From TrEMBL:
Residues 32-97 form the RNA polymerase sigma-70 region domain. GO terms for biological process: DNA-templated transcription initiation. Coiled coil: none annotated. It comes from Dyadobacter psychrotolerans. CDD domains: Sigma70_r4 (cd06171). This is RNA polymerase sigma factor. Residues 125-177 form the RNA polymerase sigma factor 70 region 4 type domain. Keywords: Sigma factor, Transcription, Transcription regulation. Belongs to the sigma-70 factor family. ECF subfamily. InterPro entries: RNA_pol_sigma-70-like, RNA_pol_sigma-70_dom, RNA_pol_sigma70_r2, RNA_pol_sigma70_r4_t2, RNA_pol_sigma_r2, RNA_pol_sigma_r3/r4-like, WH-like_DNA-bd_sf.
Amino acid sequence: MLFKRKTLFNEQDLPSVLDACKIGNHQAQRCLIRQFLGYAKSISVRYAASFEEAEEIVDDCFLKVFQNLEHYDAAQPFKAWFRRIVINTAIDYYRKNLKWQGQASLDDLEVADCSHDILNEISAQEILALVQRLPPAYRMVFTLFVIDGYSHKEIAGMLGIQEGTSKSNLRDARRKLQGMIKLNFPHLYQLYNWPNKGFNAN
């Protein structure tokens, strides 16, 4: 009787883990998840409105990774390929739920752009909590542009919107963030937002 030989891989050698994943080795797949779960969560949580949404994005992300691993070019860094899949999965999640997402108003805020000085005084966890409270369209553009470094042209193509819409969503996201900072961190807002500071609103 012939037994199927177990595929060997080295957990410390990513190419061997990927090769084993390609042929459906569940142990290798669990190994890959362990290695990249934290990284996937750190990206998805920036695009999600909650940690529960982020978990859904991560689950879908790994499913797509295993489904598309044959298309991965081993000559390119795996982490960059993986990162793009996480971001694309977050965008797909956003599009899928778009019909349920209302566009929140700006509550007639008349304030300057969000000051980097203020953001430097707020912890990463506090900034994340504020970003998660942005309306979905604002959060998506803000994260793609400010955090992940995509251009407005790239964002427009990724989200299927006009460049002008991307720019206006970014502007409104920053205004919304500053409104929340004013509400939640009034001492910082007063310290860094004197009328004569002349903040740039690009």
